[in-house]
Amino acid sequence: MNADPGPTEKKGQPGLVSAALSGLCPRCGAETLFEAPAGLAETCANCGLDIVSLERGGRFVGVVTMLLALVLILAAMGVDEWLRPPIWASLVFWAPVTVGTVIFGLRFYKTMWVYHQYEESQQP
Which of 45, 61, 82, 116 has the fewest CB atoms lying closer than 10 Å? Predict the structure, then answer.
């Protein structure tokens, strides 16, 4: 029996998407995981968890960003071929969509990685 259940095993614990959007610490659940929109904090201000040590090995951020860029480029090309919007409309639409998608994708990936590393560090 696991003495310290991970975040996915606690009843009422938010899912990974909610944790990524809110920046929840894997240990205490406080909203202290991120200092910047997609930048992890060094430590949790609430419980003192060393987040930087959990983030080691999560160096595939560039790959995640490139995959998101590929999906967004293909989507933009498809929309351009289908609707033929003016260039200003494309810029007005795709600029915030790109920024939002990349920030959410990075937050989701980093949260997933930190939660995974935290659960691995809690194994006996």
Answer: 82
Instruction: Please give the model's pTM, rounded to 2 decimal places.
Output: 0.82
Q: Which of 14, 15, 32 is nearest to 23 (CA)?
A: 32
Q: Please state the separation of Cα 86 from the chain's center in Å.
A: 32
User: At a CB cut-off of 8 Å and minimum separation 6, what does 80 contact?
Assistant: 90
- Per DSSP, the three-state class of 89 is helix
Band the pLDDT of 14: cuts 50, 70, 90: confident
**Paired tokens of 72:** 């967004």
| Cα→Cα distances 114→25, 26, 63, 86, 118, Å | 9, 8, 17, 42, 6
The tokens describing 31, both together, are 């909203």
Q: Are 32 and 42 in contact (CB under 8 A)?
A: no
Joined tokens for residue 60: 């595939």
Single out the residue of 47, 52, 41, 54 nearest to residue 29, CA to CA.
47
